[in-house]
Amino acid sequence: SVSRTALAGILQSSKKLVLSERAGAGRGRTLEFLRRNAANGLSMANLVAGLASILCSLNRQYSYSCWLLLVGFLLDLADGAVARRLDACSPLGAKLDDFADFTTFGLGTALLLQPQGALAGLLVIAYVMAVFARLCFFSAG
């Protein structure tokens, strides 16, 4: 009997909380936060895919590394489209996107190439530097 009364009181309190205007404003702030950071979340996912690809290459799991680079590519396509569609472009998002792109397409791809010998190593270093230069000179931010 006491537990039913306590449970009824808790349910009544939570009902008031959910139906209050303040809770509605909190929901609005949450949706605005999600709208503003949807593209950043996709960039973070791209970064994670790039880092996972690097780990797979280091562990000689090259097919997984390739798949993760493909996932990173698709996430990179999506983050720009989402940012423009939701009008949620920001300087932080641009820097995060550039860092994710460098990790995925610069370092991740370079490790997947598995350079053997001095010339191959120099070519891979040149490739990474080219990706870095492209991001430095042509970034959106």
Automatic annotation (TrEMBL):
Keyword Cytoplasm: no
A GO CC term assigned to this protein in UniProt: membrane
Gene3D superfamilies documented for this protein: 1.20.120.1760
Subcellular location: Membrane
Top EC class for this record: transferase
Domain of life of the native organism: Eukaryota
InterPro entries: CDP-alcohol_PTase-I, CDP-OH_P_trans, CDP-OH_PTrfase_TM_dom, CDP_ALCOHOL_P_TRANSF_CS
GO biological process, one term: phospholipid biosynthetic process
Catalytic activity field: a CDP-1,2-diacyl-sn-glycerol + a 1,2-diacyl-sn-glycero-3-phospho-(1'-sn-glycerol) = a cardiolipin + CMP + H(+)
One Gene Ontology molecular-function label: cardiolipin synthase (CMP-forming)
Keywords: Lipid biosynthesis, Lipid metabolism, Membrane, Phospholipid biosynthesis, Phospholipid metabolism, Transferase, Transmembrane, Transmembrane helix
Main location: membrane
The keyword Transmembrane is annotated on this UniProt entry: yes
EC number: 2.7.8.41
Protein family per UniProt: Belongs to the CDP-alcohol phosphatidyltransferase class-I family.
Protein name stated in the entry: cardiolipin synthase (CMP-forming)
Annotated source species: Tricholaema leucomelas
Record lineage: Eukaryota, Metazoa, Chordata, Craniata, Vertebrata
